[in-house]
Amino acid sequence: MSMKKKTFLMTAVTFAVVIAAFIICQVLIENKLMSRALRGQLIPICCYIVMAVSLNLTVGISGELSLGHAGFMSIGAFSGIVLAAWLKARFPELSDLARLLMAIVCGGLFSGVAGVLIGVPVLRLRGDYLAIVTLAFGEIIRNILNLVYFSLEGATLHASFNQPVLPGKFVYNGPAGAQGVTKIATFEVGFALVLFTLLVVFNLVNSRSGRAIKAIRDNRIAAESVGINVTKYKMMAFVISAVLAGMAGALFGLNYSTLQASKFNVDASIQVLVFVVLGGLGSILGSVISATVLYVLPEMLREFAQYRMLIYAVILILVMVLGNNPTLRGIVNRVGESLRGKNRKGDKAA
Amino acid sequence: MSEPIKHRSTTKMVPYPSESIVPERDLGKTPVLETRHLGIDFGGLKAVEDFNLTIGRTEIAGLIGPNGAGKTTVFNLLTKVYEPTTGTVLINGRDTKGMNIVQASHLGIARTFQNIRLFSNMTVEENVRVGLHNQVKYDMFTGILRLPRYWKQEKKQHEQALELLSLFDMQSLADEVSGSLPYGMQRRLEIVRALATNPSLLLLDEPAAGMNPHETEELMETIARIRDQFQIAILLIEHDMSLVMGVCEGICVLNFGKVIAKGTADEIQSNPLVIEAYLGKRKEANA
Questions:
Q1: Interface pTM (ipTM) of the complex?
Q2: Fold of B1-108+199-287
Q3: How far is B240 from chain A (nearest CA, A)?
Q4: Using a CB-CB distance cutoff of 8 angstroms, which residues of chain B are in contact with residue A227?
């Protein structure tokens, strides 16, 4: 099979899987076959799929290890929450859906701006250094968010830095985070956001810009020698990734009534990185599946109480080890080949 | 396509103002490359010193010398991988002082690498398409939104890529992953990728390395054909003397970072300094 057909097939399969999963979920919900716990997780799952796919753009496709992805998510979350609260006060006639969409766009925008600001110094570095600095920036974002205060007085938005004295009612209260958020996030919008993310990433990868990004990953010097502006394309991947993470963050934030910045710590960034690595670097479908499974898994293991994280870790290790086992891979390849061989014989007969 | 240029043995080389020589047909046109007193030292070690070279618009030139003579360093200086410590590099008459690799590429210089540097996870066609990056353009949003311009330019890229690949009869390999190609094919693909940038000067770093005599012969013809078809200048580093003597019009010999001889193939072959550099000095009988 040619590479081009393979790429097309992967794209088609990814979209098919996501759409099918959505339809199945909808049917289950309609027929009340889905447990309450799982239903509550659908929106976070969408968020984490978007997080994993967008981080895959930086780590898998652009080849830069970023450990601060949750930072962008938090910027999106809190800018989205603040905007949604302000919109509700200022334009009460707006529907929840409209507010949600505007909050998502706003989250992406703020996160994108942060992506540019962080990208300028960070993308000068390479390899391990870049990873460490992104980790630091993730922490910086979290700490800054602990010092920011927003309040609403009627329809007027007040903001302050490091001074928790503001008129009106707090929307975002520093270390205490956002409180009294109206939950306006919906699964349908989450699904649409996943589709949007997939569309952006697939279309980017299979375009002139995407090829430039992959070329830089494969061989930086050769890419420069054919006249590709390395900084520009690294920045492009980094910022698009940040924008998508911000959008996921806004959706995530508007799904909870309270949310603190401490939720978006290094652990959260590493968790998304685990989704990406386990799903396979550069494999979008892999990211989608591993984000879903690994997000649901700890919840399903809840009955094991304190052994939960232990089992989670063991499963992670097993998947990694078995996934890289040459014997196992050989078997999978042989099965695949024999299936394909059958197809070819069928073609000849036809 | 213009008239094929005569074979190198019939090319008359004439002095270019200053000490260099270029083919007679290129006289009166801005040389594609001119270096003046080019030099670089790495922490006191003079890797290249007082390097002067002029290459005519349609010249095939050779850069030879024993191992460690500084040939690849010269390539790195010309393509701005290194900033020279002394002297200047003019590409198409423009000073490249302070430029980076990308800017030098925009001036019309393209290269291949001694140790192949392909985008090895990408297909053969994608490699060439990356080479076409600045030739067939559209912006990021056109790509993401798949606007009509995207389809038009992608089609154009595809056609141009296949046309370039046909130089080496490689169209059928377009969908292969480039890293899985045999060594010789990878070398050829690198040349195609460099040509895709529409250069006026093509630098080839040991294009025949790892090729058998038959393949080298073919490569020689292809190099001449590329020059005729694209009307560009080519500067090549090569250890295979049959290729250098067979296709190069002007040859420059480096040893220990210095130019020891410059001239046509015949002049170089009979130059005592060149023979000494390659074979060493004859010992006196009663030493």
A1: 0.89
A2: Rossmann fold (3.40.50)
A3: 24
A4: 102, 105-106, 133-134, 197
